[in-house]
């Protein structure tokens, strides 16, 4: 039975105010395990979930722009891998990251410390997700490894891969949980609940989107780490959708939309935390509120990603019109195909990507520069010569900004969290 445990807080800290120094009572939440839950989902919400799953599937099957979505979606992981308090990291434009990444790939010094640090976080998220998605089975050990990788580049790497041994809480005073918005289970109650959660993640009791939503909510409810629960919980959504095969190539940015609707997000998590008997109707009713929010966020993430895919298609069609005749399978033709996924190139990297000699590739690049499609830049301390498709980077910034607008359009409602500035 899910319940609140009333516990006494013995003060440890010399807090600033009398209230912070004081001890007192608090309610820690103890959820039910997930195993054997007979979750009842009403028809309208089941239909919402089916629609959202179909949208994710369609996005993953989207022929030509599929590779492009995958290519740039890596940068979307920035907001999932950088703590939400890191404003500078969240507001760094994708062009800046792509340039730093290119300089690093060339063995140089990008001279942009912030971008290098963000890239490190993205890599950590990327490898944590890959590791967990490809592991033959998923259990606590895999989750600890994911957390270790995620925390490696954080200010507190020593917290990585360790289940907390102390009580934590969300909101209220920093000194005691007595005024907290939510208090997760006490540390000594975590072990069986974590085993239960990862058995659920490894199974297929529910459809993939339901599983991702419930795994995320139960994970945030347990808050098993001293830090990095947000990052690990966001990674878990990707892991479930990949492991279940719903999103083999591209996971839509669901948690970015949830971050844009913080009130709905927290209300959904709170509704999920029912109090009462394990099989009672209150449990399913609370979970259904959360599932509705999660399905809506998924559909919105897919719509925004679809729109971005359409804009890419329109842009490349416009480029072809500007260029006039482009011979099929020529270096130019192939370059136009790879650019949406890799908008910053050198002659060498482009030559590898299009499978043509360097002189042929250089000719094609020059043609695109003459047409205003590519711009030459010098990057990094070494001043490497690169070619950049500015319009693609701008579209991507537009996608990031739209995702941060509660209504999906920054002209109607501005972004409500830090995002890159609109390109000038
Ligand atoms: N009321 C709540 N109940 C349960 N979980 C919550 C609640 N409010 C926020 N959360 C979750 O807690 C996370 C923050 O936990 P924590 O500070 O450990 O994570 P983080 O990865 O360090 O930070 P961030 O999410 O800001 O990157 C949020 O991202 C959110 O997923």
Automatic annotation (TrEMBL):
Q: Which GO terms describe its molecular function?
A: ATP binding; nucleotidyltransferase activity
Q: Entry's Pfam families?
A: Fic, Fic_N
Enzyme Commission number, as recorded: 2.7.7.-
In this protein, which residues make up the domain named Fido?
138-293
What keywords appear on the UniProt entry? ATP-binding, Nucleotide-binding, Nucleotidyltransferase, Transferase
Q: Which residues form the signal peptide?
A: none
Catalytic residues identified in the record: 223
Q: Does the keyword Transferase apply?
A: yes
Q: Which PROSITE patterns does the UniProt entry name for this protein?
A: FIDO
- Database matches in InterPro entries: Fic/DOC_N, Fido, Fido-like_dom_sf, Fido_containing
Q: Respond yes or no to whether keyword ATP-binding is given for this record.
A: yes
User: Which Gene3D superfamilies does this UniProt record tie to the protein?
Assistant: Fido-like domain
Question: Per UniProt, where does ATP bind?
Answer: 227-234
Q: Which SUPFAM superfamilies match?
A: Fic-like
Q: PANTHER family given for it?
A: FIDO DOMAIN-CONTAINING PROTEIN, FIDO DOMAIN-CONTAINING PROTEIN DDB_G0283145
Record protein name field: Adenosine monophosphate-protein transferase SoFic
Source organism (scientific name) = Engelhardtia mirabilis
């Amino acid at each position: 039975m899910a319940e609140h445990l009333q516990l006494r807080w013995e003060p440890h800290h010399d807090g600033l105010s009398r209230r912070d120094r004081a001890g007192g009572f608090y309610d820690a939440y103890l959820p039910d395990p997930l195993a054997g839950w007979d979750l009842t989902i009403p028809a309208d919400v089941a239909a919402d979930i089916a629609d959202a799953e179909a949208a994710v599937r369609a996005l993953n099957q989207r022929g030509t722009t599929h590779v492009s979505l995958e290519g740039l979606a890596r940068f979307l992981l920035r907001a999932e891998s950088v703590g939400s308090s890191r404003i500078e990291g969240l507001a760094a434009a994708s062009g800046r990251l792509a340039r730093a990444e290119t300089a690093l790939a060339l063995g140089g010094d990008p001279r942009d410390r912030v971008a290098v640090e963000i890239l490190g976080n993205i890599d950590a998220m990327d490898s944590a997700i890959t590791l967990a998605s490809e592991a033959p089975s998923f259990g606590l050990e895999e989750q600890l490894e994911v957390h270790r990788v995620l925390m490696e580049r954080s200010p507190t790497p020593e917290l990585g891969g360790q289940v907390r041994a102390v009580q934590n809480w969300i909101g209220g005073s920093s000194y005691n949980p007595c005024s907290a918005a939510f208090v997760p289970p006490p540390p000594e109650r975590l072990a069986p609940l974590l085993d239960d959660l990862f058995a659920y993640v490894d199974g297929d009791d529910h459809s993939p989107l339901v599983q991702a939503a419930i795994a995320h909510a139960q994970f945030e409810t347990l808050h098993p780490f001293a830090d990095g629960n947000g990052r690990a919980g966001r990674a878990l959504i990707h892991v479930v959708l990949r492991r279940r095969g719903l999103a083999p190539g591209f996971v839509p940015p669901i948690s970015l939309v949830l971050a844009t609707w913080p009130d709905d997000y927290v209300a959904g998590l709170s509704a999920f935390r029912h109090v009462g008997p394990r099989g009672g109707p209150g449990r399913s009713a609370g979970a259904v509120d959360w599932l509705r929010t999660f399905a809506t966020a998924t559909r919105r993430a897919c719509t925004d990603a679809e729109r971005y895919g359409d804009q890419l298609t329109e842009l490349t069609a416009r480029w072809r019109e500007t260029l006039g005749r482009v011979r099929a399978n020529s270096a130019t033709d192939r370059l136009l195909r790879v650019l949406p996924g890799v908008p910053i190139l050198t002659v060498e990297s482009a030559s590898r990507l299009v499978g043509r000699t360097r002189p042929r590739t250089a000719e094609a690049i020059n043609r695109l520069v003459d047409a205003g499609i590519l711009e030459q830049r010098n990057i990094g301390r070494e001043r490497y010569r690169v070619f950049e498709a500015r319009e693609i980077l701008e579209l991507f910034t537009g996608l990031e900004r739209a995702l941060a607008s509660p209504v999906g359009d920054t002209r109607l409602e501005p972004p409500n969290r830090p995002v890159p500035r609109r390109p000038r």
